[in-house]
């Protein structure tokens, strides 16, 4: 390649303009396809290591955004200081180096037992997918820069190629869960990806050679530099950062909200990212369909409505998610339209992409790295929504060099945020006092920059955000946030005495009546007579101890079902949950019922392997994050692991209560695939028991003969007929949409056990 590049340009036959544009578009299209298919594919490889936590995706996004920034910086520096020939040769070489890391695989790695494996995860990404991703990330700005040097009619405005890049990214993200994931196993996906990467190397080399044949007249190919650089003000760069930061942060905020309430699977991660890319496709098109001025009046209203449905939930969770996604789409469209309308000429093209990428990285770092340290709730999402309502409608001020009112108002806004949110969160100021101070400070910003009608909307968002921020309830006695989730404990008085509730994400998972006569009585799903009680009683043999592996510790309520001679092992991925369960001031189940409980930290798919094969009489799967289920615990491979640990007459109990998905049908399909029978139970409570119990359902799974003996005489056990829309989940495939659709259609059902069954 180096020898070819040193030959005179005239040695290569000149090609037509149409072929030149097709070659550039094809190369960028393939590059973007590889770039955005590797994100869900590689992240899915890592899921079983970290319990399916949604923060895996947020951390992955930070890594990928940082690598994009690195690729953009490399593209900027190489196009600024290297000759075109050297640029082409260097970029082909860097892309070839990435080939040595393929096919993608993570091998055997040990997950740290600390509660925050973020840095470890970033290192794993860097060591495995970093080099090829870096090479891919530079293609969009670098190839656009090369195209701008040609004599093509569109060379003066090559930004349309960025729209093509994002169109390819959007297409592959939509195709991944619908076409790629169901059709190809992960190993096959990585092989196809490797072949595509090799093809891209060939295309990059060919595109570089074609560029040399179509350079603008009078360009020195040995030292191509911009003759004159467009002057950019600090305000303009700050504006680019702002309108890049906000949609990037909101994308991860919406993702966390969705995955903590439905399921932590790539399909749901892809939706906000796909919308994010769609906005680039729309606004970077040659003829944009929308302009910033058309969207600007909607921003405060969109934010206000979103905050209202988040903090005052009167709609279903799916409707709230739809509203959040719609508001994110509108805000992102507005931000990216502002970017396009303020873009520089081609002399500053690569710098523009660097600043835009830096803003995206800042949004990712804020959500995935800074927010878990700053907030004990997922407060970053409503906070950035509020910032969008305040800043975006007034953004024109940032583009006016003579106006200083915007900076004064932004400074006062920062003071208001600290008073309303930060100081109360640290316990240094009463919450209502902070809100009053914030309102006074906010009033001082009104004459500086914002119209009166807009001020009323922003004032409303400030009040709603501050008053109804997550965790602001005065009954909250404990709040914590880890890599895996947010959690809190609330204390309330009931007719049966004081009660502590364990809230994981936004779902109440358990509670304990604190009066001495009730302390050792499990409550909520785990109450006597409920599905867990029935399942444990079905497996227990009179007069014999039993070995039980429990996946998901929670508040520790199930420890009160331990009896003398039992051997229970608890598996919990989140050290923060263990600390809460061991604190008798919060919950005393473990302290009262199993003070020497064997609790093992880590994802169950990893730690359960340490148990001896055939050693367990019962395995209980009760691992939920907020309202979602870790998909990798309900797969064919997971079931194989569970079976290997069971004794000959051992059984598995799955807790399948879920408000959005038909988890029961999913588990039945996996059980049938393994050749196992299942029995379904759904329990309700009445009278006094209803005040401390929660309706629950679950499946008892095992060999048919064992299952029949265990459930004989208890008519509460029924047969579950799974929904036809649900198939067998595997580590390579989990059809989340089918499970949600089955829940909506309610076409999975229970039937009584007939005597002939």
TrEMBL record:
InterPro entries: SAM-dependent_MTases_sf. The chain crosses the membrane at residues 19-36, 56-77, 89-111, 117-138, 159-180, 192-212, 233-254, 266-285, 297-314, 320-339, 351-375, 381-399, 406-426, 432-449, 456-472. SUPFAM superfamilies: S-adenosyl-L-methionine-dependent methyltransferases (SSF53335). Gene3D superfamilies: Vaccinia Virus protein VP39. Keywords: Membrane, Polyamine biosynthesis, Transmembrane, Transmembrane helix. It comes from the Bacteria. PANTHER family: THERMOSPERMINE SYNTHASE ACAULIS5 (PTHR43317). This is Spermidine synthase. It comes from Algimonas porphyrae.
């Amino acid at each position: 390649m180096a020898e070819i590049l040193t030959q005179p340009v005239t040695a290569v036959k000149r090609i037509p303009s149409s072929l030149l544009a097709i070659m550039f578009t094809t190369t960028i299209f393939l590059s973007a396809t590889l770039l955005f298919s590797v994100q869900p594919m590689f992240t899915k490889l890592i899921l079983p290591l970290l319990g399916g936590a949604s923060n895996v995706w947020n951390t992955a996004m930070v890594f990928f955004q940082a690598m994009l920034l690195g690729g953009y910086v490399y593209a900027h520096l190489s196009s600024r200081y290297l000759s075109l020939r050297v640029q082409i040769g260097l970029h082909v070489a860097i892309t070839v180096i990435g080939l040595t890391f393929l096919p993608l695989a993570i091998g055997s790695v040990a997950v740290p037992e600390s509660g925050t494996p973020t840095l470890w995860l970033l290192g794993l990404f860097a060591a495995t997918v970093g080099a090829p991703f870096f090479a891919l990330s530079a293609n969009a700005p670098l190839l656009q820069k090369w195209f701008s040097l040609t004599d093509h009619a569109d060379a003066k405005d090559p930004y349309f190629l960025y729209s093509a890049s994002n169109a390819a990214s959007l297409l592959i993200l939509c195709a991944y869960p619908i076409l790629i994931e169901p059709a190809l196993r992960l190993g096959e996906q990585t092989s196809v990806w490797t072949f595509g990467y090799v093809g891209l190397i060939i295309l990059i080399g060919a595109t570089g050679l074609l560029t040399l044949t179509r350079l603008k007249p009078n360009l020195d190919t040995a030292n191509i530099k911009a003759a004159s650089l467009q002057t950019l003000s600090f305000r303009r760069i700050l504006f680019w950062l702002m309108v890049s930061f906000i949609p990037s942060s909101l994308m991860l905020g919406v993702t966390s909200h969705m995955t903590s309430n439905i399921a932590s699977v790539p399909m749901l991660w892809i939706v906000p990212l796909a919308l994010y890319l769609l906005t680039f496709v729309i606004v970077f098109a040659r003829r944009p369909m929308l302009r910033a001025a058309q969207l600007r009046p909607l921003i405060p209203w969109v934010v206000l409505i979103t905050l209202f449905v988040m903090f005052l939930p009167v709609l279903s969770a799916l409707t709230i998610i739809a509203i959040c996604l719609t508001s994110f789409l509108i805000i992102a469209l507005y931000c990216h339209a502002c970017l396009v309308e303020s873009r520089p000429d081609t002399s500053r093209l690569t710098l523009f992409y660097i600043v835009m990428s830096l803003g995206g990285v800042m949004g990712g770092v804020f959500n995935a790295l800074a927010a878990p340290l700053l907030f004990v709730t997922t407060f970053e999402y409503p906070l950035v929504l509020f910032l969008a309502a305040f800043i975006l409608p007034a953004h024109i001020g940032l583009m006016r060099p003579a106006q200083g009112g915007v900076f004064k108002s932004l400074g006062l806004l920062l003071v208001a945020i600290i008073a309303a949110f930060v100081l109360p969160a640290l316990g240094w100021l009463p919450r209502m006092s902070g809100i009053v101070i914030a309102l006074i400070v906010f009033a001082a910003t009104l004459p500086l920059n914002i119209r009166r009608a807009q001020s009323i909307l922003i004032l409303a968002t400030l009040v709603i955000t501050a008053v109804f921020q997550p965790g602001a309830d005065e009954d909250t006695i404990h709040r914590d946030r880890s890599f895996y989730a947010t959690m809190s404990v609330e204390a309330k008085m009931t007719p049966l005495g004081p009660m502590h509730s364990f809230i994981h994400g936004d779902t109440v998972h358990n509670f304990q009546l604190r009066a001495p006569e009730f302390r050792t009585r499990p409550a909520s799903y785990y109450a006597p007579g409920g599905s867990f009680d029935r399942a444990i009683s079905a497996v227990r043999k009179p007069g014999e101890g039993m070995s039980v592996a429990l996946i998901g510790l929670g508040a520790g309520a199930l420890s009160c079902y331990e009896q003398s001679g039992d051997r229970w092992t608890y598996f919990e991925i989140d050290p923060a949950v263990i600390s809460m369960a061991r604190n008798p001031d919060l919950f005393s189940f473990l302290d009262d019922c199993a003070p020497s409980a064997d609790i093992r930290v880590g994802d169950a798919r990893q730690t359960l392997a340490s148990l001896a094969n055939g050693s367990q009489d019962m395995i209980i799967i009760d691992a939920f994050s907020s309202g979602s289920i870790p998909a990798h615990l309900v797969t064919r491979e997971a079931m194989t692991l569970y079976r290997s640990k069971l004794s000959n007459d051992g059984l598995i109990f799955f807790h399948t209560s879920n408000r959005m998905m038909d988890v029961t049908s999913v588990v039945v399909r996996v059980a049938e695939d393994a050749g196992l029978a299942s029995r379904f139970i759904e329990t309700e409570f009445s009278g006094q028991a209803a005040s401390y119990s929660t309706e629950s359902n679950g499946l008892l799974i095992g060999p048919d003969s064992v299952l029949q003996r265990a459930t004989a005489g208890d008519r509460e056990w029924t047969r579950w007929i799974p929904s036809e829309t649900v198939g067998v989940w595997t580590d390579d495939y989990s059809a989340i949409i089918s499970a949600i659709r089955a829940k909506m259609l309610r076409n999975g059902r229970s039937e009584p056990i007939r005597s002939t069954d």
